[in-house]
Amino acid sequence: MPAPVVVLAKTVITSWKAPVAFLVFTLAMFALAIFGARPGDTTFRLSSPADAIQLPEVVVPSAPTVWVVAILLAVVTIVSAAMVRAQRRVPLWLIVIFAVLFMFGFLTWAATGSSLPMIGLLFGSLSLAVPLIYGSLAGVIGERVGVVNIAIESQLLAGAFTAAVVASVTGNLWLGVIAAMVAGVLVAMVLAVFAIRYLVDQVIVGVVLNVLVVGLTSFFYSQVLVPNAAVLNAPPRFERLPIPLLGDIPIIGPVLFKQTIIVYIMYVAVAAVYVGLFHTKWGLRLRAVGEHPQAADTVGIKVNKTRFWNVALAGAIAGLGGTFFTIGTGIAFNKEMTAGAGYIALAAVIFGQWDPIKATLAALLFGFASNLQNTLSVIGSPVPSEFMLMLPYVVTIFAVAGLVGKVRPPAASGKPYVKS
């Protein structure tokens, strides 16, 4: 008789978080349609005067558009609930569709009677997301190798401070970039030494480092930079480098391909980290150390050494991201100018499920939310200014708590390894 065939059932972990979050935003859109209806049209400007190809403006009636969007959101919510009920995960593409629909409806309502410059909105969103993307890449590498990098904020701030001072003194932007990366590495090495060598709680070390760097940079800013601002805190900036042909593509050209070298390096960094993590021997070893360090040790991988140098690499990436605050934009260093970007980057890591591409998309979402408050304030939106100021953080909370669902971080993340 033939041997019986055993079929193993695949367990799919589902969560009602996404449908519930969808329901909240859908009800909010219906509330705008019913109680906050605004007569008039909304104009979306898809080109700026400097663009090589001019696109026509898109004019939509506000009230009917909000109703249509609310109905479509309700449909997506029902679909997501049906998928969870059928023990299926809500896919990322459905979340993206919901987010795009909601944002289109909200912008249509908020900009009624005004003209919304979409190129400026998207360009500013990418600019604000740049340090978040660098920080999220540092967080992904750190957690994938088993170290929770709470110190992203301090690495960004140290990079911004060092880049401003070195570039101001030397007049050389690239020396400022190198110095910022070194500063990020030094902060990361402190985290690595205490977390890996001395087995101190990684979260506590990260928080202490954040407070320490904020204190040090604030002290040096007040006592050294302010009295000598012309010499020590007047950094040059990287100029924009439009890429021929690509920069002339409508909408995405001016946003993606008329940027500074820091942004172009970011594109390369995202691709390099993704390919490195999932398609190279380095990435395989890194992920093995973060998932099962004891098994990695048995096949000859030096666990703590791998963790130490990859945390240092993450610090270099975060330090490079810190340059965007100063020499990336030509702004003088100021106290606490990162304004919690490291913590939002850490949220992007969680929202992006420890994947560099998804974390980048999450960082872009947070950058869009941050820039949206500026754009709506300029066009005179009826949204209260207090709500606009808290919008980026509200989006962060809903994204992480409401849309992530049940995800599993790297198994050994935050756990020190002691060789037995």
Automatic annotation (TrEMBL):
Major localisation: membrane
CDD domains membership: TM_PBP1_transp_TpRbsC_like (cd06580)
Pfam families: BPD_transp_2
Highest taxon listed in the record's lineage: Bacteria
Keyword Membrane: yes
Residues in coiled coil: none
Subcellular location: Cell membrane
Keyword annotations from UniProtKB, A to Z: Cell membrane, Membrane, Transmembrane, Transmembrane helix
Membrane topology: Multi-pass membrane protein
Transmembrane segments: 20-37, 65-84, 91-110, 116-134, 146-167, 173-196, 203-221, 261-278, 308-331, 337-354, 361-381, 387-405
InterPro entries: ABC_transp_permease
Record has Transmembrane as a keyword: yes
Name of the protein in question: ABC transporter permease
Organism: Leifsonia stereocauli
